[in-house]
Specification:
The complex is a heterodimer of chains A (about 150) and B (about 180).
Chain A (H helix, E strand, L loop, with lengths): L4 H7 L3 E4 L7 E6 L4 H8 L12 H9 L12 H5 L5 E7 L13 H15 L3 H17 L12
Parallel strand pairs in A: 1-3
Antiparallel strand pairs in A: 2-3
Chain B lengths: L9 H19 L7 H20 L8 H26 L3 H13 L21 E3 L7 E3 L1 H8 L3 H22 L2
Antiparallel strand pairs in B: 1-2
Classes of the chains: A alpha+beta (about 150), B mainly alpha (about 180).
């Protein structure tokens, strides 16, 4: 990351981190504050698997009282945050009845699974194109460099 | 994973959908969907925690410069949200770009050249992993950790450095 710092600080608007991708059924979210509203709103659009008619937002508020955490360290977002790039860290933690041994579900194994999953779940062609160009990047590399459509720099 | 961890990979699917949709909005919305007043709210909360930390010691630190910097940020954050509304309502492409650049860039100002005391890798003046807290965060780390260490000269110095970062961020956002 530090090698490409000039390019990154010129062009990046946010770093989305998923490290402990799926380690249980309890969602957790931390971010720089300006991302909190959008990050929370998007949660309301994702169906949560084990709770019929409930969303990721419902599962998250049930566990965390709807509080977005403050970023410390422990994953790759650290070097982005400390070079002044808006950052977010998402994952799930173990609940009381979850298996104890898979502390980390790293994204290297997450990648191909996610590809299949998102294409299965989202049929819309425009969204599928978007997933190809942006959404699968985090699952493959653990790093999303989001260059917005309005910016060619 | 398919037997115990996440049978059917249902949670993997949900997380993939979540990050994808979030990335989509960040990349494709005409204005980056940032909530700048939320940053003011967070800093006010961190400020209260700092006062509580200081009150728990026998020393004193003048934090008025920090309070003023946060107030300045609050004003700029409100201004930029108003500018954003104007850019959208008038459908002014140039104005939208101005707002987007402000949103993209303001966070850069929070990094302090030279980094935090004794650990230059960490540069963000608003939050960082605590020096003794493992992965857990400390807010206004330069000030808070100096206070906890009883180094009130350093705390005063970092009130200045932290406030400078916040004022610079406010300058980027102001209209």
């Amino acid at each position: 990351m530090e090698e490409h710092i000039d390019w990154l600080t010129k062009s990046t608007i946010a770093y989305l981190n998923i490290d402990v991708g799926v380690s249980g059924k309890s969602p957790s979210l931390s971010s720089t504050p300006e991302l909190r509203t959008i990050a929370t709103n998007i949660m309301k659009k994702i169906v949560w698997p084990t709770m019929p008619n409930e969303t990721l937002y419902d599962a998250w508020t049930a566990e965390n009282d709807g509080e977005v955490g403050t970023l410390g360290s422990g994953s790759d977002y650290t070097s982005f945050l400390h070079n002044g790039i808006s950052s977010l860290d998402m994952g799930t933690d173990q609940g009381v009845d979850d298996p104890v041994y898979h502390y980390h579900r790293y994204l290297s194994t997450f990648a191909s699974l996610c590809l299949k999953a998102v294409f299965t779940a989202i049929a819309d062609e425009a969204l599928a194109t978007m997933i190809l160009t942006t959404g699968c990047l985090p699952t493959v590399t653990q790093a999303t460099f989001i260059t917005p459509q309005w910016d060619n720099t | 994973m398919s037997t115990y961890g996440d049978p059917g990979y249902l949670y993997h699917t949900a997380m993939g959908q979540y990050l994808t949709l979030l990335a989509y909005h960040l990349a494709n919305d005409e204005i980056i969907p940032y909530d700048l007043p939320a940053y003011t709210t967070a800093m006010r909360s961190y400020y209260d925690e700092l006062l509580s930390t200081i009150n728990g010691t026998s020393g004193t630190v003048d934090t008025s410069e920090l309070a003023a910097a946060i107030a300045q940020f609050e004003t700029s954050a409100k201004e930029v949200m108003a500018l954003m509304e104007r850019a959208v309502s008038t459908n002014d492409a140039a104005l939208k770009t101005v707002v987007n650049h402000k949103f993209r860039d303001f966070q850069r100002a929070f990094t302090s050249a030279g980094g935090l005391p004794d650990r230059e890798f960490y540069k963000h003046v608003v939050n960082a992993p605590g020096i003794d807290t493992g992965y857990a965060p400390t807010t206004f780390p330069g000030i808070t950790e100096a206070v906890v260490a009883g180094n009130f000269d350093r705390a005063a110095e970092w009130v200045g450095r932290t406030s400078l970062g916040i004022r610079r961020a406010a300058d980027i956002l102001k209209t």
